Amino acid sequence: MSNEKRPVYFNPWDPEFRANPYPHYGALADGPPKLIDLFGPVALVGRYADVTAVLRDHARFSSVQRMRSPEMRDEGAFRGAATMLFSDPPVHTRLRRVVAREFTPRRIRDLEPRIREIANGLLDKVERNGALEVMADVANALPVMVIAEMLGVPAEQYAMFKAWSDRIISGGNTIPGMPMPAEVKQSTDELRGYFAAEIENRRRNPGTDLVSALVAAHDDNEAMDADELLAFVVLLLLAGNETTTNLIGNGMLALGRNPEQMDLLRRNPELTARAIEEILRYDGPVQSTTRTSNVEVELGGTLIPAETGCFVILAAANRDPARFPDPDRFDITREPSDHVAFGEGIHFCIGAPLARLEGAIAIGETLRRFPKLRMKDPEAPLEYKGSYFLRGLAALPMALE
Ligand code: HEM
Questions:
Q1: What pairs with residue 37 in β-bridges?
Q2: Alpha-carbon distance 376 to 114, whole Å?
Q3: 43 pairs with which residues across the strands?
Q4: Which residue has the least CA distance to atom 12 on ligand 1?
Q5: What is the set of domains in the chain, with CATH numbers?
Q6: Stretch 70-80: mean pLDDT, rounded?
Q7: Burial class (CB in 10 A: 0-12, 13-18, 19+), 371
Q8: What number does the ligand 1 atom closest to the CA of 87 have?
């Protein structure tokens, strides 16, 4: 192999880059973090060692989003209120503590029978129709139905939540400095209006759901203010659905394109948990997260100036050959798999146990019920939607026979 460094191309606002960013990640693994100009100076962090170093160093790499304009604040899903995702300690510690106990692996295990029931209800319909489009029939519906039930709102309204969250997430494709499209703003207003009313309902009629728990935390011990309460509910709905949808979709695609791996999994369902980890490593739902340097920092040989936006590219780290041998090979027996698809450090995904369970049930039940499942044409071009940050398939038709 030549020692010549490959040129870097990185542009989350280019639809072609978004459709397949993986060929561009090799150049990031070649050397230290790169400083480039992308609507302003940014750092690209893609090597596994650098990504984990940034995520563990929350003192120097902040999660607080720098608002470039008042519009960003007034039109964003959280309207400038602090959320655990976009805050640093001590605010982060205070907010995360409020829901940490609702997401423990034990609490999540209790949901298993209900998740299995929802998944099989969706697959019953597939069986009746004799055709499977993974996204529309399973992946889009299951996570949003589950999180809706956890929030205590009717799962049947999932199509409405899904439409709102799809549009809000597509707001991530807006070029920095350009106004948010009107439909993004409208969906944000509708979603916030819906949950503002639900918060009032739950204040009068508390239940055992997450919204009631958040209202109690707000009212009883003032763990957060009213704006933070609403932002919290919106965060849980958004974070809890598109990501898991894409875990299921990306997973079925990887299995469909690697039929020997699909057969291996079908013959050995006890490999399901490991297969989910490999899907997360190989084609995780969150390509990149972001941080801003609080001070000037030396990282892996690059001097990053203070107040520089950093793309912390989880999906590139997960394909770093220095950490994962033969990283472009999809291998459900790969071990160990300490991928960073759920992040690392204090912001490590609070929903990871739930996402793993939903992914295992959706993929496991689909393979169990349709023993001849295969991809019609593994080479057929695919359409991607969402944003670069939350990237997933628009559709994935598969053959049942
Ligand atoms: C496969 C599915 C999922 C993936 C790949 C994923 C990925 C991530 C990642 C990478 C982070 C850290 C972001 C950062 O450090 O900047 C994160 C945080 C978070 N995730 Fe997930 N997530 C998934 C599912 C879920 C689910 C199901 C929920 C909730 C029901 C959820 C709720 C959250 C929350 C609230 C945070 C913020 C945690 C904090 O800042 O302390 N996620 N997720």
A1: 41
A2: 31
A3: 35, 310
A4: 343
A5: 15-399 (1.10.630.10)
A6: 73
A7: exposed
A8: 40
